[in-house]
Design the sequence.
């Protein structure tokens, strides 16, 4: 006989363990994902805050450099309608832009400029985070470089002129119509007593032209140097002026004739390092050039092709041979400002046919590179909109 099913035996039922495990895993996974997202969000916020501060710091650094050190940024001279450059650093860059919003008018109203520095931080600790940016701006005007010229030929050590050939003139060689000042300066400016104990100017007055012909600028070389409007120590060591070229006393580093020919409108600043005072390293200028020539010790203008358009600043003495011309402003004996007592042989010694002529236009062109931006107070802003 077949047995009947035992009613006490139950059929197999599905358990609840597996679904519960799945639910728990889902909850744990969601919690973990939420924690990761929260941590990533906090990290992104922290990174964004740091990047924002860095962007602001670099933007303000760029603006400060634009205001005070354009030459180091590769921006020389007075800005035109617009100029800009980009400075890169690890993890980002900043752009500095100068935009002219009003041109100058005559000599009394300077050009007005809008300065802008925009920094971008491109590196981020969190993948996909946007770059941090910051912009600061200000208004500024341009102050032209200037130089107080005491005479066509100023010698704090004294000047000896041999014969009547040539000319030393304080009459402005640049016509007013061409931008000249129309002023007349003394022909020479010297101490009453030169470094050799003789007269400050020893020579004929025939080649002199100016008002007066001879200007006394102190009883002795030391007195004359103490009253000098030129800060020679700062120029000598390069802290006051950033030179375009630096040369040794043998002319290595000095711009060539080819350079001057290729750049006919450029008036560079050239520093000749032939110091210290009384070093005996006389720099010989045997060609024609232009700009501001700074010679730490002695210089000789040699030959009939030697000459200069612009400013000639000499720490020691000037010695000339041949037929030479300097059109602008010449100053010698500046090492006296260091307290160095000039030797009797340190007097400027002018031989041959010499022309030292005051020219306000070449002086202005030579000091143009010393101009700077003057920032107006209460014009700084950080709300410049970018799109």
Sequence:
């Amino acid at each position: 006989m077949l047995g009947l099913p035992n009613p006490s035996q139950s059929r197999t039922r599905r358990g609840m363990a597996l679904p519960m495990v799945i639910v728990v895993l889902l909850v744990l996974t969601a919690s973990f994902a939420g924690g990761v997202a929260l941590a990533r969000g906090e990290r992104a916020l922290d990174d964004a805050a740091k990047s924002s501060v860095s962007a602001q710091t670099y933007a303000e650094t760029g603006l400060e450099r634009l205001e005070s050190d354009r030459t180091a940024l590769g921006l020389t001279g007075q800005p035109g309608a617009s100029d800009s450059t980009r400075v890169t650093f690890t993890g980002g860059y900043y752009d500095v832009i100068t935009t002219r919003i009003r041109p100058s008018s005559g000599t009394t109203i300077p050009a007005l400029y809008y300065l802008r520095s925009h920094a971008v931080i491109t590196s981020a600790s969190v993948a996909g985070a946007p770059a941090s940016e910051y912009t600061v701006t200000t208004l500024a005007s341009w102050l032209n470089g200037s130089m107080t010229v005491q005479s066509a030929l100023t010698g704090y050590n004294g000047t000896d002129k041999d014969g009547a050939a040539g000319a030393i003139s304080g009459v402005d060689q640049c016509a007013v119509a061409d931008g000249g000042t129309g002023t007349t300066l003394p022909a020479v400016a010297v101490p009453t007593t030169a470094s050799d104990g003789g007269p400050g100017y020893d020579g004929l007055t025939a080649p002199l032209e100016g008002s007066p012909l001879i200007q006394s600028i102190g009883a002795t070389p030391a007195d004359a140097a103490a009253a000098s409007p030129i800060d020679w120590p700062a120029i000598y060591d390069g802290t006051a002026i950033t030179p375009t070229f630096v040369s040794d006393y043998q002319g290595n580093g000095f711009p060539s004739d080819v350079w001057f020919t290729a750049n006919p409108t450029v008036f560079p600043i050239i520093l000749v390092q032939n110091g210290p005072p009384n070093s005996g390293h006389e720099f010989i200028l045997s060609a024609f050039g232009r700009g501001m020539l700074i010679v730490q010790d002695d210089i000789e203008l040699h030959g009939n092709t030697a000459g200069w358009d612009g400013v000639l600043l000499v720490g020691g003495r000037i010695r000339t041979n041949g037929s030479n011309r300097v059109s602008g402003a010449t100053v010698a004996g500046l090492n006296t400002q260091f307290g160095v007592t000039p030797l009797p042989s340190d007097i400027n010694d002018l031989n041959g046919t010499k022309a030292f002529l005051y020219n306000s236009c070449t002086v202005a062109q030579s000091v143009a590179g010393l101009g700077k931006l003057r920032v107006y107070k209460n014009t700084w802003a950080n709300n410049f909109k970018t799109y």
About this structure: The radius of gyration is 36 Å. The longest strand covers residues 132-143. The mean pLDDT is 86. Residues 135 and 386 are 9 Å apart (CA to CA).
